[in-house]
Automatic annotation (TrEMBL):
Transmembrane segments: none annotated. Keywords: ATP-binding, Nucleotide-binding, Sugar transport, Transport. One of its GO terms (molecular function) is ATP binding. Pfam families: ABC_tran. SUPFAM superfamilies: P-loop containing nucleoside triphosphate hydrolases. Gene3D superfamilies: P-loop containing nucleotide triphosphate hydrolases. SMART domains: AAA. PROSITE patterns: ABC_TRANSPORTER_2. This is Simple sugar transport system ATP-binding protein. InterPro entries: AAA+_ATPase (IPR003593), ABC_carbohydrate_import_ATPase (IPR050107), ABC_transporter-like_ATP-bd (IPR003439), P-loop_NTPase (IPR027417).
Length: 259
């Protein structure tokens, strides 16, 4: 199936590839992410998910194909370049300091200033307001972020990226180490980020987490794309079958492409 992207796509890849020496990590992968849309990238370990998000976030440069932001071809030299274009990545480790407060982590590296001093009152107020705006109920923004649940920490990271102007939010396996309840918390905030007009790239190996919030689904297997499907083109059962691999995968993918 030919990948489909809407005219308002913020981020798009066209047949991008990446090699590391003799290892082909990614080959001819195409996808698109529009405002107010969640694109789920699914695949098992070794499928190429990590390489793809490192290209999107500016950690690696692609070797072949084209990477476009707002319709213009780009080749980021660093994550800072990607962030300057509104592409923010939340990794599994979240880049938070457990013993620091929620508000301190919220502004870590981008502290508001009052003259030359750190404006603590503003940091506390803004952190509280932004978390509330995302529907995140944190009991006390002065508590160490390490005392929060895994789902709450993910939610703080999402709210932080939204506040600092993210237009595309890339989430690296945000539900992988969470229980059912906490995974549900994170999925709810992914949906809220989408509803606020962000484009979201949700990296996961779990189709049961992807399908409820996803609008489009890109499936990777050993560095290649099995296909990109809209939610109206694939059922949850078909998505799970594609993830299962083997003969089922090839047969179902062929049938879906024919349709």
């Amino acid at each position: 199936m030919t990948p489909q992207t809407t005219p308002q796509a913020i981020l798009e890849t066209r047949g991008i590839g990446k090699t590391f020496g003799s290892v082909l990590a990614l080959r001819e992968v195409s996808m698109g992410v529009a405002a107010g849309q969640v694109t789920c990238v699914l695949g098992d370990n070794g499928a190429g998910k990590s390489t793809l998000i490192k290209i999107l976030s500016g950690v690696h440069r692609h070797d072949t194909g084209a990477y476009l932001v707002d319709g213009q071809e780009v080749s980021f030299a660093s994550p800072r370049d990607a962030l300057d274009r509104g592409i923010a990545t939340v990794y599994q480790d979240l880049a938070m300091i457990p013993l620091m407060s929620v508000w301190r982590n919220f502004f870590l590296g981008s502290e508001p200033r009052k003259g030359v001093a750190f404006d603590v009152a503003k940091a506390r107020r803004v952190a509280r307001e932004e978390l509330r705006a995302m529907g995140i109920d944190i009991r006390d923004v002065d508590q160490p972020v390490g005392t929060l649940s895994g789902g709450e920490r993910q939610s703080v990271a999402i709210a932080r990226a939204v506040y600092f102007g993210a237009r595309v939010l890339i989430l690296d396996e945000p539900t992988s180490a969470l229980g059912v309840k906490q995974a549900g918390v994170v999925l709810r905030y992914i949906a809220r980020a989408r509803d606020r007009g962000l484009g979201v790239v949700f990296i996961t190996h779990n189709p049961h987490h992807a399908y409820p919030v996803g609008d489009r689904f890109l499936l990777l297997n050993r560095g290649t794309s099995i296909g990109e499907y809209g939610k109206d083109e694939i059922t949850a059962q078909e998505l799970t079958a594609l993830m299962a691999g083997g003969a089922e995968l090839e047969e179902l993918a062929h049938e879906l492409r024919r349709e």
